[in-house]
Amino acid sequence: MASKLLQFQSKASEASKLVAKHGTSYYKQLLEQNKQYIQEPPTIEKCNELSKQLFYTRLASIPGRTESFWKELDYVKNLWKNRKELKVEDAGIAALFGMECFAWFCAGEIVGRGFTFTGYYV
């Protein structure tokens, strides 16, 4: 056990040195590549303005997203009407998608319970 701990400690030390050596250059390179998105000076007023812009932009995109939702729903209805012609591949993809949704639901429930599998803390 002690040898594993020493191995882990040496690996962590190597990783720390690597980040210390290359982290600042990566940070500077990233900021340089994206400098057109940086607002100068970074004031509270500018942050509030940007948050309002984001909020109202997202609010304005709701009609387009609802239209897209109804198109998807019509497509699913059409698939259901013609389910006799449904290919096995399409059914498999739909089943996998359903299983993925259920898995994310279960993960959310586990997180909501405080990372317990058996139940809520009372």
From TrEMBL:
Subcellular location: Mitochondrion membrane
UniProt KW keywords: ATP synthesis, CF(0), Hydrogen ion transport, Ion transport, Membrane, Mitochondrion, Transport
Superkingdom: Eukaryota
InterPro entries: ATP_synth_F0_gsu_mt
Family per record: Belongs to the ATPase g subunit family.
Name of the molecule in the record: Mitochondrial ATP synthase subunit G protein
Native source organism of the sequence: Hibiscus sabdariffa
Phylogenetic placement of the source organism: Eukaryota, Viridiplantae, Streptophyta, Embryophyta, Tracheophyta
